[in-house]
Structure formats: C-alpha cells, structure tokens
Amino acid sequence: MIADPIRDFRDAGVDVIEREAIAIDEQRWDDWLALFTPDCEYWMPSWKADGTPTNDPRTELSHIYYASRAGLEDRIVRIRSGRSPASNPMPRTLHLVGQIRFIEPPAAARMRLRSSWATQVYFPRTRETHAFFGTSQHELVRRDDAWLIAKKKVTLLNDYIPTMLDIYCV
Predict the structure, then answer these.
(1) Backbone phi, then psi, for 136, in 5-degree steps?
(2) d(CA 93, CA 139)
(3) Residue 31 to residue 22: CA distance in whole angstroms
(4) Alpha carbons 111 and 13: distance in angstroms, whole number
(5) What is the SS3 assignment for 19?
(6) CA–CA separation, 119 vs 150, rounded Å?
(7) What is the pLDDT along the chain (170 residues), one digit of tens a residue?
(8) Which residues pair with 156 in a beta bridge?
(9) 77-81, long-range: CB within 8 Å, 24+ apart, which pairs?
(10) Distance CA 107, CA 22 (A)
(11) CA 2 to CA 25: how far, in whole Å?
C-alpha cells in the first residue's frame, strides 16, 4: 500500500476534532483540556453586524475568549465545583461535527482545519432543548508525537441565543 501523507494528516485532524466533541459530551473535562496546548487560544467572536464578526478578541466583544489553557482550566474548575449557576445542574449535550477540510495544505508540525458543527443542549432545570450551530477553525500543532489544539475559533451562526452560552454548547 502506498503511503498517503495528506490522508494521514486529515485522519489525525479528524481524530482530534471528534475526540474533542466526545470528551465534552461525556463531560470528561481532563481529556478535553489535554487536547489543548498550554498557550492555546480559544475564541468565539460576536457579530459587529449581520455577516461581519469581530476581528480582535483583545479589543472587541466576544462571546467567549480564553488566551490560554489556564482560562479553560478555570472554567472547568467552576463547572465541576457547582459554583457556576448556568452549569448546575449540568446540561447534557450532543455534538455533531462534519465537513472537516484543510484550510491550507498541512505541514509537518502544523495544520489548519475547518469544520461544521451542530450541538443539541438539554437544560434539566428548565426542561428545554436548544440547538446551536456554526463552523470552527482548528489550528493543530504536533507536540511529542501528538496533535494538540493551538487555536480554536468558533463561529456561532445562530442569530438568536435563547439562553446562556458556554464552552460545552459549542
């Protein structure tokens, strides 16, 4: 069989994105955090106007922004502790990801992918289910024989957000 390096990159990228979704759905927070580099950036821009997202998380409004894994870790501490009213009781989620494609040709230690996603979220307190959907861009880097998320940009396409929005909703 002839080796296909592009397919190998794609398979590795799909694996990381799918493992991320499954770890969130199963609330395996340590596994989820382990997918990110310590210096990662996690960003969900808001919209300036219809069809125009914000461009800079440091100077413009964002739905979610963490400049490193430490911010994600802090969020998980609050979720686990029960000190997050929005996450108590913890909503149940189902993430569906697809249309995973390269944004640019992959390199030996770096690749950028885009994907489409939809998440169903059930809120036990209110007995409501909400759907969130959008696209994501993942920048993956190779560290110690593993692919990790160095940057994740989530573009939420819902025009109306009927309830609180958290990392597990997207």
Answers:
(1) -135, 150
(2) 24
(3) 10
(4) 8
(5) helix
(6) 22
(7) 567 788 999 999 999 999 999 999 999 999 999 999 999 999 999 998 778 899 999 999 999 999 999 999 999 999 999 877 777 889 999 999 999 999 999 999 999 999 999 999 999 999 999 999 999 999 999 999 999 999 999 999 997 888 888 999 99
(8) 134
(9) 79/29, 79/166, 79/168, 80/29
(10) 26
(11) 36
What the block records as the tokens of 134 is: 């959008």
Q: How many residues does the chain have?
A: 170
Model pTM greater than 0.90? yes
Residues 6+ apart with CB under 8 A from 95: 21, 22, 24, 25, 117, 118, 119
Provide the pLDDT for residue 117.
98
- Work out the angle at residue 137's Cα, subtended by the Cα atoms of residues 134 and 139, and round it to the nearest 5 degrees: 160
Whole-number Å distance between alpha carbons of 41 and 154: 11
For residue 85, give both structure tokens.
Answer: 């009213």
